[in-house]
Amino acid sequence: MQPSTPNGEWKTRAPLKHARAAHAVVSTPTAIYALAGTGRGGQPVLEVERFDGKEWRAETALPGDGLNAPAAVVHAQQIYLMGGFNTTTNIPSEQVLIYDLVSRAWSHAAPLPAPRGGHAAAILDGRIHVAGGGNSSSTIADHSVYDPVGNTWAELAPLPRAEGSPALVALAGRLFAIGGRSGPSDFGDVFIYDPAADHWAAGTAIEPRGTAGAVVYRGTIHLFGGEAQATQTCLDSVLRLDLEQGVWTALKPMPTARNFARAVLFGDEVYVIGGCPTAGASHSSEGSTLSESFHGRAGK
Questions:
Q1: DSSP secondary-structure letter at 262?
Q2: pLDDT of residue 1
Q3: How far is CA 165 from CA 26, 151, 169, 263, in A?
Q4: DSSP assigned state of 284
Q5: In this model, does residue 196 exceed pLDDT 90?
Q6: CA torsion, points 95, 153, 134, 168, in degrees to nearest 10?
Q7: Which of 169, 185, 278, 283 sits between 20 and 30 A of 233, alpha carbons compared?
Q8: Which CA distances in Å does 136 have to 81, 86, 229?
Q9: For 137-153, how does the pLDDT look when each residue is reduced to its tens digit (9 = 90+)?
């Protein structure tokens, strides 16, 4: 790990209408969407919110009674909301909900191969990859891939270890699974998936953490916040990966430490939306309305 550098600037943005943790956040070129999770008093949040760059507004309502720790991606003007734990329980769901951004209507896709929550998702070569998470009894290493054209799921090489709450991004034709946890243990491993070989290899590790947010920004991976269970603390750290050197550098930290630090790219900034500033609450975290954006300096 390289020492901290002041590169970057943080700004406070308009707060969410509803506090959220264990939620999902996605972005398009014109908006950010916040879905699911738990809020005031650790209760499920059903309202889906949309941010247009100035303020958050109600977009739609989530079908059902609520979800915590689902995963979401945007593909072809549709939001795919996958799995999660029902309401504030540890009972996982297999459902895959689709929200059409044009018609503003909900529908269902083929369900996950098995129920799971606390997993991560990313798009690589037009397919949706889902990795890690947990079922009702343990964390899992499952790596499933969804074909939006055929509406079908298939199983690929599992993660090298079972883990929940990793961060997952696609970069340079590969997947990067970062951190994660199982029970009271946090992991700092970085696993890199090669789709041609259907194989995971070890990358440069970080300090152990779960529920961090990750995004590809200015050509490389940036990692935000998370939780260290060993010390029962939420993290404010921001790490940037030098892909060629395989070295992580610490950047200017977030103004507010938090777990479930959901990060998305919007314009030329990274927005970190919601999350919980209190460690250890898990499936019933009382979320926050925090919305902060990070703007890297030229070339950073």
A1: E
A2: 64
A3: 17, 25, 13, 14
A4: G
A5: yes
A6: -110
A7: 169
A8: 19, 11, 20
A9: 999 999 999 999 999 99
Task: Say which residues have a Cβ less than 8 Å from residue 98's Cβ, sequence separation at least 6.
Answer: 78, 79, 80, 81, 106, 107, 108, 109
Fill in the DSSP letter of residue 229: T
Q: Which of 192, 210, 215, 202 is nearest to 270 (CA)?
A: 215
Rounded to 5 degrees, what angle do the CA atoms 188, 192, 193 make? 140
Q: What pLDDT digit, counting tens, does each position of 263-298 carry?
A: 999 999 999 999 999 987 666 778 999 999 999 964
Contact (Cβ atoms closer than 8 angstroms) between residue 34 and residue 26: no
Match 């947990």 to its residue by tokens: 134
Q: How far apart are CA 131 and CA 134, in angstroms?
A: 10
For 257, the token pair is 């430490």
Is the Cα dihedral 38, 140, 111, 223 positive or negative? positive
Residue 49 parent element (H or E): strand 47-51
Going by CATH, does the domain composed of 9-295 fall within 2.60.40.1120?
no
What does the block give as tokens for 87? Answer: 């309401």
Q: Residue 197 class from Cβ within 10 Å (0-12 exposed, 13-18 middle, 19+ buried)?
A: exposed
Residue ranges covered by each domain of the chain: 9-295
162 phi and psi, to 5 degrees?
A: -75, 130
Buried b (16+ CB within 10 A) or exposed e, 113-141: eebbbbbbbbbbeebbbbbbbbbeeebbb
What is the value of pTM for the model shown?
Answer: 0.96
> Locate tokens 């898990």: which residue?
282
